[in-house]
Amino acid sequence: MRSTSVVRIMQRMIIAGLVALTACTPRDQAAAAGTGTPLTVFAAADLRFALADVARLYREQGGDSLVLVFGSTGDLTTQIINGAPADVFFAANAEAIDSLAVRTMIVDSTRRVYAIGRLALIARCPTVQRVSQTSSAPCPAPARLEEVAAASVQSIAIADPAHAPYGRAARQTLERAGLWPAVEKRIVLGANVSQAYQFVSTGNADVGLVALSLVARDSVLGHTLVDASLHDPLRQTLAVLTASTHQASAAKFLAFLNTPAAKNAMHGFGFAEDAP
Prior knowledge:
globular; 5-stranded mixed beta sheet; alpha/beta; 2 domains; D-Maltodextrin-Binding Protein, domain 2; metal ion binding; single chain; ModA
């Protein structure tokens, strides 16, 4: 896992099966359960837990069933351009939606920023604590960003900046902090930010710069919030796709996002409504 080339090979394997990735966790499956024609939602990987929670709440209140498809924003955008069927796209930035807008592939009136994302610094747990999860306190994260440059840190997981907005934000953070030259050779690239988080949570990377939303409720891994001024704001943007044949259902789901229940769920995973 130390080799960037090995990770790139893994990325190609993951991307090849991306369209088939739907509701991959039990939590996602519960959220997507239901009858009738489901609404297909493509979503950035940082929403893996948060959107599943929102989907569950939506179903509990009588909303339509959902199929959640997670991946890096860049890869999902490419899939949509190439004709992958989806009704709604939750991107991790605005640029992805822009690229679809110039191709008239979104319903312009539905476009909006749904959240501001944040980066968090995490570190792997000792194997015993990671497996047993008996400790009353989560594993501590480095208190300062500068600690990632320590000689004891052999691998730093981030999402691939070529495909993932959180990866670009992670690289910007390291560059603006003046740390990139010292750590570049230790960077381990995940196909998306969820995989970067998994590298650390499974002990295959020493530290990681990942989405706060993936660790906000993690009882094992502690985290340190990254100074938002070190990277461009993560203005996470959504839109309904013009190719959708379920636009009325999509509109109902987007309306639900404005309810207190949905907003509280998003806030609980560390998302803000305005840039800090």
